[in-house]
Amino acid sequence: MSAGQPFFLTRGVVLVPGDLTLVDWPERAKKAGLTTIALHHGSSPKVVSDFIVSEEGQRFLAASSRLGLQVEYELHAMSELLPRGLFEKDQSLFRRNEKGDRAPDSNLCVHSGPALEIAAENAVTLGRTLRPTTGRYFYWGDRCKPACLCRSCLRVESHPQAPM
Fold this sequence. Notes:
Layout: E1 12-15, H1 25-31, E2 36-41, H2 45-53, H3 55-66, E3 70-76, H4 78-81, E4 95-96, E5 102-103, H5 113-129, E6 137-140, H6 151-158
Parallel strand pairs: 1-2, 2-3, 3-6
Antiparallel strand pairs: 4-5
Helix pairs in contact: 2-3
């Protein structure tokens, strides 16, 4: 690394759409030496996608592009990747709780092929609206919520090297 070059090539900030009430956020970020703005919302990717398709969101993207700032999205997306309304149709898509019952309250069973297919299809749909310029997609499980406790999931949790 040569003198005068920053140690970290990527320097960013994570904001929620409500933070962008200052229309000059991209200019401020550039002036501060940032390279990336990540948009996030703690409970709903829809809030982020609604912002991005709005006139205000399009202005934000255009200004970021003009200034050479990267934009990405960091989302706790499981409730939209696997809609909770599907529980009535197929409970096996959802996590097993500590009582052994299937529950639509959070996350999914990662050993359910159909659940993973639905989540993947919805991730592609979400990705059509939220296109990061970094090439990185961050779709996380439900924030601070329990994972599946079925035997297959527990086996992986307890013994990461255990055969499936």
